[in-house]
Amino acid sequence: MPAVSRSLEDLRMQVGTWRQQGLSIAFVPTMGALHAGHLSLVTLAAQKADRIVASIFVNPKQFAAHEDLDTYPRHEAQDLAKLAAAGCDLAFLPQATQMYPAGYTTAVTVENLSTDLCGVSRPHFFGGVATVVCKLLNQCQPDVAIFGEKDFQQLQVIKRMVRDLDMPVQIEGGPIIREADGLAMSSRNAYLTANERKSAGMLNVIMKNVITKARAGDSVEMALRQARESLLQEGFDTVDYLEMRREDDLSLISIDRLKAAEMDQARLFAAAIIGKTRLIDNMPLAPHPDHSDL
Q: CA 20 to 30 Å from 173, out of 13, 30, 184, 233?
């Protein structure tokens, strides 16, 4: 098992010891219920620094009252075993009362990047994410922190926060890890019934079809409209959004037929609900070796 710190004092003592030894620190924040996607970030962290710290904290600040805070999967023993196998050196497991003690009133807000996409249906979410990540980065003080690209909007929000607040940490994105049928790995996939899980695998297939059409010079608007209809036909209850946006500032792309120059910065974003589960995914339009199957 990795060493476990449950207090800020223990965390800083261990990180401080490594600093005195001249070692660099990589940090991987998680909410637990770890899967191969999380563990790929630990593997990437090992390439970036001498020591790896991973946190497990289900952050109440990013859940609305009607969301799944109480039922979010928690598997501490299994998670620690997985972190050990992945090469993590230290696991930080704070309690909510430590992170947000009585009288806590401070919040971090990143404007603009937080308002669209997931920010529409979950307006509380990115404020909660920015606040907890700001705290965790200050607590761990790593040289580099790794976040998954499945939550691409979150990654951009964190990069902007770190830049705007002059925080001395490098933010890196790790590629999306997918199931055999292409469904992006997520802790919430465990909520899916057998039938829902079968339909969920069509999300990435339909998204790839949109990208193929856009690369061929077809109408993006028509491809998106057909994709929304296909998702509903495949069993999704609601399409929260399916949009083409720029990667850097997440602004909406209004050009209907994309040229090569637009594709270099274009990314397709999707969020759809099936049963009680909200799934998100994203894919770049520019051809990439990791996306040769598109």
A: 13
Which regions of the chain carry the CATH code 3.30.1300.10?
A: 187-291
66 is catalytic: no
Output the pLDDT for position 159: 98
Instruction: Calculate the CA 31 to chain-centre distance.
Output: 11
The sign of the dihedral angle between the CA atoms of 27, 31, 33, 38 is negative
Query: Which CATH number, 3.30.70.600, 1.20.1540.10, 3.30.1300.10, 3.40.1190.10, labels domain 187-291?
Result: 3.30.1300.10
CATH architecture of 3-174: 3-Layer(aba) Sandwich (3.40)
Q: What is the mean pLDDT of residues 181-209?
A: 97
Residues forming CATH 3.40.50.620 domain(s) in the chain: 3-174
For the cut 90, the answer to whether the pLDDT of residue 289 exceeds it is: no
Q: Edge-to-edge, what's the strand order for the sheet holding 266-274?
A: 238-246, 266-274, 277-284
> Catalytic one among 35, 38, 66, 291?
38
User: What sign has the CA pseudo-torsion 99, 58, 282, 182?
Assistant: positive
Enumerate long-range contacts of 266-269, CB under 8 Å, 24 or more apart.
266/214, 267/152, 268/207, 268/210, 268/211, 268/214, 268/242, 268/243, 268/244, 269/117, 269/152, 269/153, 269/241, 269/242, 269/243, 269/244, 269/245
What per-residue confidence (pLDDT) applies to 62? 95
Which uninterrupted H or E stretch holds 16? helix 8-20
pLDDT by residue (tens digit) across 79-130?
Answer: 999 999 999 999 999 999 999 999 999 999 999 999 999 999 999 999 999 9
pLDDT over 70 percentage in the chain:
98
